[in-house]
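ingest -> validate -> predict -> emit
validate: passed (alphabet ok, no gaps, 228 aa)
predict: started
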Amino acid sequence: MTSEVTSKVIKTSVQSDAVGFVLAGGRSSRMGTDKALVNLGARPLIAHAVEILREAGLAASIAGGDSALAGFAPLIEDRSVSLGPLSGIVTALASASSQWAVFIPVDLPLLPASLLVSMLRSSKIKGSVVTLASVNGFTQTFPAVLRKEALPILERELAAGRGGCFSAFQAAAAGAGQSVNQLPVESLVQCGHAAHPQALPAAYWFLNVNTPENLRRAEILSAQALIA
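emit:
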């Protein structure tokens, strides 16, 4: 039933006016090696991330990261690699010709594509400049759905040395006279608008694979879900 819900959500979505980006320009200091190329199961994290975007019906590109990633999807070089993920977002959003852009980090391999579809649909219906998800009452910085008009304010925040993505998202929404559109994942699941293809509970979707320990945890969760 879970896979049927996920398939239905994706098939009924139209993403011709949206694109997807994987943020892969981090230093991976806690992993000890480029985490984008670390395997979860038989595939590297970058392959998982690109597949999530494509399953959501989005053309996928990679924002930042080493040239070795270019074989997985088109690579957009970050203008200022030392300024963190907000710089990658600004560079990617500036390159986009579509009105909407969906951003996911390379280290969230357990995200279901149906969540992105639901977030994008809500963004379009409400005309939101910024849409984020929340789980257990806590708003998550990623995945993020941004309208193109967020770009000038994000550029301003970056130029002012305010590199935090969440605060920059809030500023972008406020600049458009809005608040951040926050979607409780639990409500999406309850309504059948989002589901994990392996039936993982929503609390696990946002597991950051930043360390070898996180990677082992993700492997265990994936294995348990397949057995279930």
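Confidence is low (pLDDT under 50) at residues 1-12.
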